[in-house]
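Milestone M4 deliverable, item 7.
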Amino acid sequence: LSDNADWQSVRLDIRQEEVRRFILERLVRPAIQAGYQGVFLDTVDAWHALPKAQHAEYRAAMIELIRAIDTEVAGGAVWLNRGFDLIPAVRDVIDGVAFESLYQGFAAADETYFAVPDEDARWLLGQVETVQKLGLPVVAIDYLPPDRVNEAPALAGRIVSHGIQPWIADGHLTRVGQSSVTPVPRKVLGLYESPHDDIDKSGLHLYTATPLEYLGYYYDYVPLHSGVPQEDLAGRYAGVVVWPEGGTIFPELCAGLARARAAGLPVVFMAGIPGNDTCESLAGIRTDQAPRGRIEVDELRHGAGQFEGRVRTRRLNLTPAQLTQPGQADLWLSLRDGAGQIYAQVATTPAGGFALRPYLFEETPDENKYWLFDPVQFLKAALQLRTLPAVDVTTENGRWILLAHIDGDGFVSRAEVKGTQLAAKVTLDKVLRRFPIPHTVSIIEGEIAPHGLFPDLSAEAEPIAREIFRESYVELASHAFSHPFVWRHMEGRTDVEEDAYGWNMPIPGYTATVEREISGSIEYINERLAPPGKKVEVFLWSGDALPGDRALAEVEKLGILNTNGGDTKVLPETNSLTHVWPIGRPRPTGLQVYAPVMNENVYTNEWHGPYYGFRDVIKTFQLLDSPRRLKPMDIYYHFYSGSKYASLNALIDIYTWALDRPVTPMYISEYARRAHGFYDARLVQDSAGHLRLRSAWPVRTLRWPQAQGWLEGPGVLGWWDKEGERYFHLAPGGGVMKPVRQAPAGPSLVSANVVWDQVEQVREGGRWQLEFSFHAGQPAELEVRNARECRLAHSGTTRHWKARQRTVKVSLGVQKGEGLTLVCQ
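Output delivered:
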């Protein structure tokens, strides 16, 4: 229709059918198919720029478009920006209305801020009153420049007084806005240095991501050479951690860090501090005085120098870091030279803190690293982190999550058993059917298909794969077509080294591509091996398990979850947090979910023996459970473990040990969704101190120190305590939670070995009612505290359980249930 100079855009003629079709088919439909849950329609009143005689025609076309969009959204949200004269005609299909500039506005044409005239504000409030009478929520978007952000709370309160939700941001919406609730940042800006921006090769990711995630926070990874993001950082991040690997100086880095500090973010330097006056000033040190004479340990505090490793006095070295304001710093580890000068090596300061080489780790000749201080407590202190209810992916309903997943390697290996069966058949008969808990099982297409590497074995192998996939407790997964050993090679990376086995399995006439490995192998399983009603749910990375961005994008495009990778393996002789990898590897194209624990290959000297070596994973599980529970249990192995008596017996021992413990078995896909939930979850807090949790992915457990008290709310089903930590069980959907100092009265859930499909609780006096549906990997059990008795009603029948010591143990005896009602009092 015309140019829109204010916003450097154009006005479209919605009256044209092809324009409406373009909006629906090219914009709205792909967004909904990609997972977006609603549509926000901006400038729906642009038709006011037309001659008045055309208004009715245009208005009718806009109403038709809004109704068509509601059909495309299919139950999702449709919101309008303004369009007040349209709202009565579309009230039945829209979910809310936003408008801009009630009291403070922004002129995009010349990028100026202005106070809205009183007359205009009164007119807007009149329009809002009409919308509110229709029962629709209303949001006012007002604008304040960065230098007036301190006015936002008062402005928000003024807007709330009219029953309107405020959102107060800068003119370009780059700042997290002020509303009636305050976001609680869980992200930390992580600046790392690594070739090709591979975060998996950076110290930041390898050594500090796990401690940070234990605290309930996680990194937003940005390469050092990219510098600090330009947008307003306040409210977006809880702090900044910098880990430079070498001596490269990035000119804009320190200026960006100074800007972050000015926005109120603590800045923490790990390993080193760039040689720049600005960075040294941020750290609160100077490095202009070289040490003299003999170097000695001056002081160790907070367990520094005696955590996992020990300071070796015969190897003392230092960075000449002298605190400029020593009275404001908390020294964790400091050295003294022959002249009595003190040099800080690990310290927290009002601005953040630093931990300098070589005083992060004790490094041993076998290349193991052992923290010299507790990185969990150091990061909490240096970043001045609030003690959050941490999203936890290790525990569900008060029980340790138990996973089991199998990579397809060795499916066609001949087992050392009578009859020389395939290893896959032995694994099915001797392991899966003996321990029928949820399993995620994969095959390699190129290993068992007739067009693969072993065509003569395909007629024997494919029926076994179908037999495995028919089992009710088996989830289908792919382990690629030709088992790539170096995934990034397929994406043109020339800096990667060929594996000892090559780039991939040498299938005649085949050159590996990302699409064939992922989409092609999944299609093969779905069409040739999967039983009716089942399909591939998970892709298990092969080889180096380091997918490039294209591979992750391919999995995301298919809506398939993924796991494998990481290198978590701790044993008594190598017990260190440095061997515990994070939950996942976030990339721009998707999230790689790491395997919680490594497989039998690394416990058996890369399958050179001893073949019973995987039994040591029990020690790994124990170390990952205490003193901090860091990972779920994951019995992760290959089909070739079914080929030898020693490895088979080791598997039986591992399953037996795991199932002797209180566990919640689940599929890898269910765990992967919870891993996504960890990174996706958002917390906000209202003026009454209540917390609200939102996530598009499942978040079923929150954890915080017992000393913090309890959480209560309609979505909090109960809690379970372990070694100073309190694990809260959440119903699907989360909700509003109130921190309290006294334990909530009345019955509540202690533990259960189920995965909730749906659950609602009702509390009336001393009576507790739970309406729920569930599935479980074992016969379902629930334990309820503070109850005399419980009764379960279902399909016209009632069962009763009595308490022992104020605790009722409910045994349902089934692994799936719908429409159940449990009443305890």
